[in-house]
Design goal:
single chain, 418 residues, alpha+beta, Serine Threonine Protein Phosphatase 5, Tetratricopeptide repeat, Porin, 2 domains, 13-stranded antiparallel β-sheet, 17 strands, 25% helix, disordered N terminus
Length: 418
């Protein structure tokens, strides 16, 4: 039977029971044959092993429409493995693995492979979350050992990569201004024009990340990175752009991950260079148990304000956080952080503290994420014109959803309200 004949059979066979297929060549019947799902799996595997990936994909995708959940997810899994490791198509493999987990969230093997694929894409934190979720679902001892080994190799998984994100960005305060109609000073209250008050708008938010990793020995890697982000609005005076780079070392010590980097950033607001900053950052990831990870972060940054030398400052920050998987579909986490800004003028020098909490839950093909936070900031002294020193309290909440059932290609839409 020709390859075209079998390709036709693969494209139409979706039933569990044997299905008769009539193949034709040059308008003449040449063969009539019944193919069961088992036979089509064998054919697809043979095509894959022979390197005929296009034909194998056609057969696997036909089987992936089977009404039996076990059969269609087995087809998705085999296709995902072929795409990821034989055709260098990890993003397409990720889509298939997530489709399986949408229907069978307790399948630990699939979560393990999803973790590997995400690591190949450079999404290390997301890979670690999937591994914790797999262990929360329960694994045999020999598989747990494999997970521990793989976790130790995560940050060495991909030597280079580029990630790009683009989203709509509605905001009720695009100009970072007050909502008050007046400004209180020691010489009286001043009325603020509409331009000086908070304005709302819808723009585009973008993020770009490029990285490269060069192993220096068995446990250490030289890490290079470039980051860019921006919010763009119809009124270019409100555009906010940040560009930066980093160079440092990533170290693995057992299951611990340690990173120390030198960083530099430039920020433009409204097309004008606003700040230049540089310094050092450090982070540590320490698994407390298979389900829980401790996160430690610290940074010491010098910020050079291009508009006001009195705001030049050394800024020190530190945070402690926990991430925990409750089961294969649910996780929680939180962090406590503190920041000290040593500005040239004590009126701009501040101290602040933050508490943040999040929880996520997968509902079929939808992932819901809820966040809540509180922050408090105080200035060292009042600025000359103002009657009191600055004190800010801020509460934030947000809910977000990723809707994989509305996927376009490899893109799944996300919606966030905050």
């Amino acid at each position: 039977m020709s390859s075209n004949v079998v390709r036709l059979a693969a494209a139409v066979l979706v039933a569990v029971a044997p299905f008769p297929v009539l193949a034709q060549s040059n308008g003449q019947p040449v063969a009539t044959r019944e193919l069961t799902p088992a036979q089509l799996f064998a054919f697809a595997d043979a095509a894959r092993d022979a390197g005929n990936y296009e034909l194998a994909e056609t057969a696997y995708r036909a089987l992936a429409t089977n009404p039996d959940v076990a059969l269609r997810n087995e087809a998705r899994f085999r296709l995902a493995m072929m795409l990821a490791y034989s055709q260098s198509r990890p993003r397409d493999a990720e889509v298939l693995l997530r489709q399986i987990l949408d229907e069978q969230p307790e399948t630990a093997r699939v979560r393990l492979e999803l973790g590997r694929v995400l690591a190949d894409l450079g999404e290390v934190r997301a890979a670690e979350r999937e591994l914790r979720a797999a262990q929360a679902a329960g694994l045999p001892p020999e598989v747990e050992r494999l997970v521990r080994f793989f976790t130790g190799r995560l940050n060495q998984a991909k030597p280079f990569g580029v990630n790009f994100q683009l989203a709509f960005a509605p905001d009720t305060n695009i100009n970072r201004a007050t909502q008050s109609d007046t400004l209180e000073t020691i010489i009286g209250d001043f009325d603020l024009s509409e331009d000086a008050r908070a304005q709302s708008g819808i723009g585009l938010s973008s993020r770009l990340r490029a990285f490269a990793r060069i192993p220096t020995d068995e446990h250490a890697t030289l890490a290079l990175g470039f980051n860019g982000s921006g919010r763009f609005y119809r009124e270019s005076a409100f555009n906010d752009i940040i560009v930066g780079g980093q160079i440092g070392s990533e170290i693995r010590s057992g299951t611990d991950y340690i990173e120390v980097s030198g960083v530099a950033n430039w920020r433009w607001f409204g097309g004008i260079l606003y700040t230049k900053s540089y310094g050092v950052t450090g982070r540590m990831r320490h698994p407390l148990n298979p389900r829980t990870q401790l996160n430690l972060d610290a940074a010491l940054i010098y910020s050079d304000d291009q508009l006001n030398d009195l705001r030049d400052a050394e800024v020190a920050t530190a945070s402690v956080g926990l991430d925990r998987s409750l089961d294969a579909r649910t996780g929680i986490g939180g962090s406590v952080s503190a920041s000290r800004n040593f500005a040239n003028d004590e009126g701009y020098a501040t101290a602040s503290g933050d508490i943040d909490f999040y929880a996520y839950r997968e509902f079929g093909s939808t992932t819901a994420l809820v966040r809540a936070g509180y922050s408090h900031l105080e200035a060292d002294r009042r600025l000359f014109l103002y009657p009191e020193r600055r004190k800010d309290d801020r509460f934030t909440t947000s809910i977000a959803g990723t809707f994989r059932s509305f996927r376009v290609g490899t893109f799944a839409p996300q919606v966030q309200l905050s």
